[in-house]
Amino acid sequence: AFVVKLLAAKATNAGSSTGLYTVSSPALGAIINNIRLVGAVGSTPTINLYYKKSGGNQQKIMKTETLGANIEALVVKPELTLGLGDAVEASTSVAMDCVISGVEQQ
């Protein structure tokens, strides 16, 4: 069965890689429909987004993006399919709030 849900809601670490979401048991996989990143008021953050296969290395899935002050990043295209143990990570220049939604296969 597929379950529509909020997959993650957390803050990124400024200047270092942050694990945003990892597919973990009992889920067998997941499809991410959107990733929303919002910075602090007045900041101009840079964002890198990565996919990490279970036991593998980071693969950049979004080039370095610099946002204007008070602008949010919404990554929706296309959906990202993950297997058990796969993860999405981000590196941001400032702490940012992040929300990821999609479906998990149970």
What are the low-pLDDT stretches, counting only 5+ consecutive residues below 50? none
* SSE-based structural type: mainly beta
- Report the major sheet: 5 strands, antiparallel
Work out the number of β strands: 9
Average pLDDT reading: 90
What's the alpha carbon Rg, rounded to whole Å? 13 Å
In terms of DSSP E residues, the strand content is: over 45%
Number of H- or I-type helical stretches: 0
Q: What separation lies between the terminal Cα atoms?
A: 5 Å
Choose one word for the global shape.
globular
H and E order: EEEEEEEEE
Give the % helix.
under 10%
Which key features would you list for this structure?
mainly beta; 4-stranded antiparallel sheet; 0% helix; globular
Brief account:
The protein has 106 residues and is mostly beta strands. The protein has no helices and nine strands.
Overall description:
The structure is a single chain. It contains no helices and nine strands. It has 106 residues and is mostly beta strands. The strands form two sheets. Strands 1, 3, 6, 7 and 9 form a five-stranded antiparallel beta sheet that branches.
Topology:
Elements: E1 2-11, E2 17-22, E3 29-39, E4 46-52, E5 58-66, E6 72-75, E7 80-83, E8 87-92, E9 96-105
Antiparallel strand pairs: 1-9, 2-8, 3-6, 3-7, 3-9, 4-5, 4-8
